[in-house]
Structure formats: structure tokens, C-alpha cells
Amino acid sequence: MTKKLSNLNEKKRILIVLELEKFDIKLNTDFIGRNFIYAEEINSTNSYLLDKKNKNLVDGTVVFAEKQTEGRGRKNRVWYSVKEQNLNFSILLTNRKYFPKNINLINFASSLAVALSIENLFQLNASLKWPNDVLINNKKVCGILLEAVSQGSKIEQLVIGIGINVNQSTFQGTFNIPPTSIRLEMNETIERERLLAEVLNSFEEILYETLSNPKEIMRDWKSRCRMIGEKIEVNEGNSIKYGIFDDIDESGTLLLKTKDKIEKIHLGDVSLL
Amino acid sequence: MDLNLVKKLVKIATSSDISGLEIEENGFRVKIDKQAKTTQVISHPQYTEVASHHDISAKPVAEDKKPELEKADNHHEIKSPIVGTFYRAPAPDADPYVQVGDTVSVGTVLCIVEAMKLMNEIESDVSGKIIKILAENGKPVEYNQPLFLIEAS
């Protein structure tokens, strides 16, 4: 039985590298991903786009890597992803025309794009965790890290790094939130090309909407956030706060209801009590 | 409103034949009346707390050219592009990116402002010397809050 499985994996292994033609046919964007950089191995897709050597890349460039040797999350936490199983990519935005007035809305736009894509393609219920994790059955399927470079007081470059667990079937290590992959939830191998194109299509659409109708984006986002109204713990690094997750305001700030007041939370790890 | 801008406007008004100047930008109105010898900075009511804090620095400025005003023209403020937490170092145990007195050039990393899962690295857009650090490490900063004062060279 075990032997059979490994044979099957061997066969699939040949087909496993991202097929660019398949992806390209499904891509339906104006500018996101029109310049697409494919890398077998890279330190980090975010670092690549932020590297000064690559500063002339066009707006909307997407860099994709089958393997990241230094994939990371917030606070330099490691983002580990098995080679050729998942989607690890970063989107570059350089045109301020596409920056919403409140740049933090991109946190919500990008995670909403991933959740909607998973729902559309696989009919799975994807929920969202503040500020931008995507969960299926309370397990993390996608993490997002945004990095920006400002010159003086103006943002010049915004990089949205997205890691989606697609076909990985085992996870080793310790996690704040238990991980899952779409394959584990669906019990079948997933076509990564289609999902990647869907996420980019959806991201561009939502990015436009973030500019024209930011309230709608926040409404959609909040409707998928199951923690609102629950007792939570917020770990801000140097302090832990407890309270009720009251709401998210229009700028995306978490409103934490404590004994005597409403506190505004801009960052931190949120978990249910 | 930027104090330097007010000074520049005063300079323009002083060096020309016009009797006064009135300019409105982003909800701020500056009115320079050469007869009255005053400059008014009027903020609109829709302004936020942060903006009204800025008003304090934009006190009426006399239109006479004073040498110290000329000097202050070199002073360049770096303001926060986002609401978030201000970090002077890449990690809690690492050395700060810059200290008061350090010489910086265009592109030197000054700090990080983090909000949600957005890490915003802020680089200097001028060459010069850091003369003041206006925000405290690890503390929240508002949109447009001044973070550094740099004496441009």
C-alpha cells in the first residue's frame, strides 16, 4: 500500500512544476501578474521585489517561487513550504494611484481575494482572521505579509507576499494556529495554476473596489470573520490584552472592548480565549 | 501644514509687489496680508487631532526675513505614511537604524512603522544630519506624525 502511494507520488512529481501556459490562459487581469517571474528557488519572494537591484520592475509584477529558502512571516517567523506543492508569490505595487488612502486596507483586500478564490473554486468555507490570515475549518491555509518601502513620508513600493498551502499533506513544527492545505480539506490534488490565476484576478478586482468602495470590502471581510463578538486575547509582543472583539473600524483597526473602554489595536496575534 | 511651506509663502509674498496672498491646500488656508503684516493659518473643522497638533507649529509667522528662519528651511521632517507602531531597530535586540547626530543620505533606512501585517521601512529622502527623533520606540504613531527632523545638507 505504502509502495503504491510512493509510486503514485513519483508519477505526479513529473507534472508538479507550475505550468505557465495553463496559468496564463486563466489570468484575466489588466496589470497584476502580467509581468510574471518564475523561480525554482529563491530566498524570499518579498525580498526579491524589495531588493534595490530590482527596483525597475513594472507595477503589478508577480514573482513566484517553487521553494523559498528564507520564507518569512511577521516578526521574522519562518514560513515553511514544501517545494512545488504550494503557492508562494509576491505582488508588487508601485503606482500610488492604486494605493488606497488607508494603505492597511490592502491587508484586507488581499486576504479577501484568497478567501473568495478558495470559495469559488472549491466551495469550501474560508474564514478570515484579523488582520489577514485565511482559515478553513479554523486551520490556517494562507498567510500574508505586506512590506513597504517609503522615501520620506511617501510609500514608494508595496509588496504583498502570499503563501497558500495547496497540496502539502503534512506539516512539521509548532504553530500558533494549526495548518491545513486545500488538498487536505478536499481530499484531492489541486491544480495550482488555476488557483493562482483566480487569486490574482480576484485581487485586482478587489484592489479596484478598495479604491471605489472601501466600506464594501470591509463589510465582505467582516462577514467572514468569526471572531467578532468573542472573548479574545491580543498578544502585542510586550503586553497581552484581554477583552471582547467588538468590531473592526473602517480603517481596519481592531476594537477591543475591555472592562471600561474600547481600545484600538493596530497589531498583534489574536486568539480566542 | 508644513511650517517650511508657510515660510516659503511668506518669502514669495515679501519679495514680490503683491499686497497679499491667500492659498488653500488640503483643508488649510494660509492668508498673508502685507498691510497687516501677519500670516494666518486657518484649519478647517473637518481636521483630525493630528492635523490640529500641526497647527500649533504653524503659528503666525512674521513676514520679515529673519536669519534663523532661513536656517530652519534646511530642517526636513520625515512623517509617518501610516498609522502604526514605530520601531527604531529591525529587531528588539538589534542596534537602532540611526541615532541623533548620524549623517544620512537619500535611501538610508531610518525606521520601521508596523501596522497589522504591514511592515513599512522608511528611508530618508534627503541627505543630512539627524537632529531630532520625534517618536518613541515601540509606541503608536499617527498618520502624518513627524518622526525625524533632519538638517538637510
The CATH architecture classification of the largest domain in chain A is: 2-Layer Sandwich
Architecture of the largest domain in chain B in CATH? Answer: Beta Barrel
Residue runs with pLDDT of under 50 for 5 or more positions of chain B: 36-71
Strand order of the largest sheet of chain A: 1-2-3-7-6-5-4
Strand content of the residues of chain B, in percent? 35-45%
Uncertain stretches of 5 or more adjacent residues of chain A: 1-15
Query: Using DSSP, what is the number of strands of chain B?
Result: 11
Strand order of the largest sheet of chain B: 4-11-9-6
Element string of chain A (H = helix, E = strand): HHEHEEHEEEEHHHEEEEE
Please tell me about this protein's structure.
The complex is a heterodimer of chains A (273) and B (153). Chain A has 273 residues and is of the alpha+beta class. Helix content of chain A is 30%, strand content 29%. Chain A folds into two domains: 2-223, BirA Bifunctional Protein, domain 2, CATH 3.30.930; 231-272, SH3 type barrels (Roll), CATH 2.30.30.100. Chain A has seven helices and twelve strands. In chain A, α2 packs parallel to α6 (192-212), α4 packs across α6 (192-212) and α6 crosses α7. The radius of gyration of chain A is 19 Å and the shape is globular. Chain B has 153 residues and is of the alpha+beta class. In chain B, the strands form three sheets. In chain B, strands 4-11-9-6 form a four-stranded antiparallel beta sheet, with no helix packed on it. In chain B, β1 (20-25) and β2 (28-33) form a beta hairpin. Chains A and B meet through β6 of A and β4 and β8 of B. β6 of chain A pairs parallel with β8 of chain B.
